[in-house]
Structure to design on (440 residues):
């Protein structure tokens, strides 16, 4: 399965990361830690600096001429110079560093002691006579790419070549060129794309694992073909068999549905369906990943839920959601007889956005939503009309019969007028929404 190019997904204002600045500050703070932990190659024994057993071993090394001058095999122990500002080279039992400054004698040479099989410093000239020039040949393009890989994955538009150059200079006092940073950033983006290609290529394996460990579950991996005739990801749906069976046996006949943005590099939407158990606690039913929240994807998702839960035409069931047009249309087509309630929080949010923050409006709207019967509803509606006629007109446009308790059917054992369960769920999985699709 090849990686698809996602369609542009609009970002809602309320999904804006208000903590963006602090995230960048944390990124700056973590750079030094990242470079300390960076390993260009897997850690092996000769990469670890050993402690000597005793002062006697050091004295013996001095007597054998190994500490200052005495490498026993000069041809083997003289590594090639020029590999970096400080690093000379190593083999399996010896390693050396020198200073790249002009005429500077700083030098260290280590090898494994034959008697102890541990690393010892045999030559060390510790005084620098050069000036710091900010150059480090060891900080090559692939090292910069690995150092900033996670930062670029999280905020690719922030970590541009100029910013990377500035951070390296300010944090490590090392000078790199803008071209190096550009090449390193491109390399990091290439690695990230390969990661996603690998993840999407394993989705069918992931689906097979779900079915093997959870027989009779519902898994749908929907793909489309690109111009090259390759399958690319379109949407993904999961509903575990044990969850849907227990929902039918023990839960209230109410389903809350909502969509929320994924926060990984590849944008998309997570669609969820949640129920309520006998204690009114949140009960996850099914979820799906789609490219964008539209009528077609909601129709696909609602059809999946309809089949898995055996809802038929939706009679005697409740659906709670916001006023997303694609969702409303899909619900009417798939479940024509379901009681579709609108979330009052979203209704009030729309009124607040249009009319501003009026202290009295919130209480009046919620009082109207909680009207116990039609007489209470008419009285509360008249109160709003007398308070502000323009607000009254906008409330009537919102079809209050879909979000006021006075018009709910009797016998469904749920008087909720909001969709707080799905909002709470979306908040709970906020961290997981930052993960990659295949590992979320």
């Amino acid at each position: 399965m090849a990686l698809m190019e996602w369609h542009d997904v609009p970002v809602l204002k309320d999904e804006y990361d208000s903590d963006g600045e602090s995230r960048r500050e944390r990124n700056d703070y973590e750079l030094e830690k990242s470079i300390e932990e960076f390993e260009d190659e897997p850690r092996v024994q000769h990469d670890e600096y050993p402690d000597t057993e005793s002062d006697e071993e050091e004295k013996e090394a001095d007597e054998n001429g190994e500490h200052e001058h005495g490498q026993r095999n000069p041809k083997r122990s003289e590594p090639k110079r020029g590999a970096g500002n400080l690093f000379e080279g190593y083999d399996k039992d010896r390693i050396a560093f020198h200073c790249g400054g002009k005429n500077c004698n700083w030098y260290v040479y280590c090898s494994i002691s034959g008697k102890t099989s541990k690393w010892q410093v045999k030559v060390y000239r510790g005084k620098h006579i050069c000036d710091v020039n900010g150059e480090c040949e060891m900080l090559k393009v692939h090292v910069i790419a690995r150092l900033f890989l996670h930062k670029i994955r999280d905020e690719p538009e922030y970590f541009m070549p100029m910013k990377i150059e500035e951070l390296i200079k300010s944090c490590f006092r090392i000078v790199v060129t803008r071209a190096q940073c550009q090449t390193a950033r491109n390399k990091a983006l290439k690695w990230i794309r390969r990661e996603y290609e690998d993840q999407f290529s394993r989705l069918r394996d992931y689906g097979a694992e779900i079915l093997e460990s959870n027989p009779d579950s519902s898994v749908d991996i929907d793909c489309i073909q690109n111009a090259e005739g390759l399958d690319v990801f379109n949407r993904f749906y999961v509903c575990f068999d044990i969850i849907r069976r227990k929902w039918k046996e023990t839960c209230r006949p109410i389903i809350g549905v909502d969509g929320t943005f994924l926060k990984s590099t590849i944008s998309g939407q997570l669609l969820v369906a949640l129920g309520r158990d006998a204690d009114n606690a949140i009960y996850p039913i099914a979820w799906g990943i789609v490219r964008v929240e539209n009528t077609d994807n909601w129709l696909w998702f609602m059809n999946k839920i309809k089949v898995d839960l055996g809802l038929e035409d939706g009679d005697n069931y409740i659906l709670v959601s916001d006023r997303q047009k694609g969702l409303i249309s899909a619900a009417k087509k798939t479940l024509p007889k379901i009681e579709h309630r609108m979330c009052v929080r979203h209704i009030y949010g729309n009124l607040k956005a249009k009319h501003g923050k009026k202290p009295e409006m919130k209480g009046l709207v919620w009082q109207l939503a909680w009207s116990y019967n039609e007489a209470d509803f008419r009285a509360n509606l008249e109160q709003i009309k007398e308070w502000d006629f323009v607000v009254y007109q906008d409330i009537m446009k919102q079809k209050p019969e879909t979000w006021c308790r006075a018009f709910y059917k009797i016998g469904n054992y749920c008087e909720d007028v909001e969709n707080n369960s799905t909002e709470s769920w979306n908040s709970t999985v906020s961290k997981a929404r930052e993960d990659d699709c295949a590992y979320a």
About this structure: Residues 178-201 form the longest helix (24 residues). Confidence is low (pLDDT under 50) at residues 1-21, 40-85. Residues 45-125 form one domain. The longest strand covers residues 231-239.
